[in-house]
Amino acid sequence: MRTKRWNQNDLSKAAKESTSYKQVIYKLGLVPAGGNYQQIKDYLNKWNINIKHFRGWGWNVGMKFKPKPPMPLSRILRKKVHTKVINLRRDCCLKA
């Protein structure tokens, strides 16, 4: 097991300058894979480092672009309306 190459001050500084866990990991010189995410989360909690400014889990959280909402079933299940089965499953069935 290797020793950490960063300390509490490094983690605090990286967290202040970042908007996601991945950015923190990169700024500390780590690879964004394996247990690094969990290790960073654990140390952020242990040392009570503020992460409320993180934007969230989504790829577009905080951005201007928002994907269009799915069409309701009443507009899809009509004659001469073509849609892919995967879209029906994703947009309609998996929400429950």
Notes on the protein architecture:
Helix 2 (21-27) packs across helix 3 (36-46). This protein starts with 7 loop residues before the first helix and ends with a helix. The protein has 2 domains: 1-56, no CATH class; 68-96, no CATH class. It has 5 helices and no strands. The chain is elongated, with a radius of gyration of 20 Å. It is mainly α and 96 residues long. The protein is 43% helix and 0% strand.
What's the layout of helices and strands?
Elements: H1 8-17, H2 21-27, H3 36-46, H4 73-76, H5 85-93
Helix pairs in contact: 1-2, 2-3
Provide a count of the helices: 5
Cα(first) to Cα(last) distance is 44 Å
- How much is the radius of gyration in Å? 20 Å
Low-confidence stretches: none
Short synopsis of the structure:
This protein is mainly alpha-helical and 96 residues long. Helix content is 43%, strand content 0%. The protein contains five helices and no strands.
Provide key terms for this protein.
2 domains; mainly alpha; 43% helix; 96 residues; 5 helices
